[in-house]
Specification:
The chain has a single domain, classed as Bira Bifunctional Protein, Domain 2 (BirA Bifunctional Protein, domain 2), CATH 3.30.930. Helices cover 32% and strands 20% of the residues. Strands 1-6-8-13-12-11-10-9 form an eight-stranded mixed beta sheet, sandwiched between helices. A hairpin with a 2-residue loop joins strand 4 and strand 5. Helix 1 packs across helix 3 and helix 7 packs antiparallel against helix 8. The chain is globular, with a radius of gyration of 20 Å. 37% of the residues are buried. The structure holds asparagine (ASN). Asparagine (ASN) binds next to strand 8, strand 12 and strand 13.
């Protein structure tokens, strides 16, 4: 890559309305910038240790991710999604896709094997290159993705309130040197629980289509937004038109988690796939299991690991919290 990265500027995003300086790759960093990276990595290590520990304390199984599968998240229709390209490759004469999220695997594993599970999984989303400027998009990132059989949305939200606040308390207790080095120790606070919950329809009446950006800049603590129309696997009440799903929004950084109670009934899943023009042949196994009544009600969510750390350390760009940045439109050597 060249010294100064030039990125298209049409679509300036959530963090600010001015062009962002793109994070440098490792070999371009000064000593003090390397020290900062080191502190950020230590904060991330501690956060992952805390979060995975909490999941295991609560009886979750830790599963390893899959990279190539016939079925992955359609990421469609989702107003937040903007993919430049979908990766499909042929292996052993079959077409497989790189993981966009582990949602389908979670639904199947949670129904057939583990009532409580989590996966720390890489997601490959080739975002449009303009998204370099949002400061919160990376074309590879990681989710701490989890699912609980028979859980309600409320159960999941309360659990997330708990672990987000817990991870910040734990960081303040055990990582004070790193937080001081990053100059955020004093401003980092543990929010009050439970986090406030807004309905997307109310936000839309107040702010219009741009509600997500508006609420992101208005709040000082994480807040929940529920009832967001999106992919087929999120539960939708056809009568009321309400979606039983949720996003967690972080002040100034935006959405860090999305999740829902899931659809499990075959006829609803089929109806929604058809309505959304999502190819049914890409979801053969899920449909077969649902038809046989083997998909169980569950709820879950996925936490964007790099976004959560960006918010905690006050990063200007998500690429700062990746040792090997994955910025839309910029391909580094490593
Ligand atoms: N992980 C999300 C969920 O559990 C799905 C996604 O990332 N698109 O609902």
């Amino acid at each position: 890559m060249s010294e100064k990265q030039v990125v298209p500027q049409e679509s300036l995003g959530i963090i600010g309305d001015k062009a962002l300086e793109m994070p440098k790759s490792l070999e371009q960093l000064s000593e003090s910038e390397i020290e900062r990276k080191r502190c950020i990595s230590r904060v991330m290590t501690h956060m992952l240790k805390y979060l995975t520990g909490e999941f295991m304390n609560k009886g979750f199984e830790w599963l390893l991710p899959a990279i190539f599968s016939k079925s992955t998240d359609p990421l469609w229709p989702d107003p937040g999604a903007s993919l430049e390209k979908r990766i499909e490759v042929e292996i052993y004469g079959e077409t497989v896709r790189t993981t966009l999220s582990m949602i389908i695997h979670k639904m199947v594993a949670c129904s057939l094997v583990h009532p409580k599970l989590f996966i720390l999984s890489p997601n490959v989303r080739i975002e449009k290159r303009e998204r370099a400027n949002t400061g919160i998009n990376a074309y590879e990132f990681h989710q701490l993705d989890f699912e609980v059989r028979n859980a309600t949305s409320e159960d999941i939200r309360r659990f997330v309130d708990e672990i987000i606040c817990g991870s910040i308390s734990s960081l303040k207790k055990h990582m004070n040197d790193e937080l001081l080095c990053l100059e955020i120790y004093h401003s980092l606070k543990v929010s009050e629980k439970p986090f406030r919950v807004y309905d997307r329809e109310d936000l839309e009446s107040k702010y219009g289509k741009d509600w997500e950006k508006q609420i992101t800049f208005e709040v000082d603590d994480p807040v929940w937004v529920t009832n967001i129309p999106r992919e087929f696997y999120d539960f939708e009440d056809f009568e009321s038109g309400k979606w039983d799903n949720y996003d967690l929004i972080l002040p100034k950084y935006g959405e860090v988690l999305s999740g829902s109670r899931r659809e499990w009934e075959y006829s609803k899943i089929v109806r929604k796939l058809e309505r959304d023009s999502v190819k049914k042949e890409n979801y053969k196994l899920l449909l077969k299991l649902a038809k046989e009544g083997k998909i169980k009600p569950s709820a879950g969510a996925g936490i964007g690991v790099e976004r959560l750390v960006s918010w905690i350390v006050g990063a200007k760009h998500i690429g700062e919290v990746q040792l090997f940045p994955r910025i839309p439109g910029i391909v580094y050597d490593l």
